[in-house]
Amino acid sequence: MHHPLLARFYDTFLWPGERLGMASQRDRLVGHLSGTVLEVAVGTGLNLPHYPATVTVDAIEIDPHMLRKAKSRAAEAICDVRLHEADVHRLPFEDKVFDHAVVSLALCTIPEPGKALAEIARVVRGDVHFLEHVRSPSPARARWQHRVAPAWSRFAGGCRLGQDTEAVITAAGYTITDMWRSSGGGMIQGVAKPASHDR
Fold first, then answer.
1. 105: Cβ–Cβ under 8 A, 6 or more apart, which residues?
2. How many domains are there within the chain?
3. Residue 182 structural domain
């Protein structure tokens, strides 16, 4: 889970996408939140400038190389941010201590996303806000994702390019209450509620 080369070039690689709309998606993902937030797999901290002053963020990342790059963005954020080197499969927090969770471009890389989502449900009393790239519903696009997946995974730290993340979320016991899908179908953003919160 240590990827020094990926951490070095991650922001440069994502920069075109940020300019072409990804930054706006990050605004929609976190810009309206309030209260206490757990951000899972914060990476280099690209979401951190988009949080409002109304939140306190505890952000975890297992890769220390990514986490070092996130520190400068945490220092510049307008909200309170605490960074933790931690594994989402074993979160170092008590039960139900966060109002919300945020996960973006991470469920495709987390080794056991179902287990991670169960652990998130343990520590969060509210909803999970997600932004993920997924297997396209277009057969032609899905075939392309399948062809490039092995090379992509080696380059992108184990990312599963063609994962059906919507199905992963629902299989983990969540109900998706709101979801947007990109025109090409390869990106989703939404809100999911753990089933345990209905009990």
1. 41, 43, 131, 132, 133
2. 1
3. 4-194
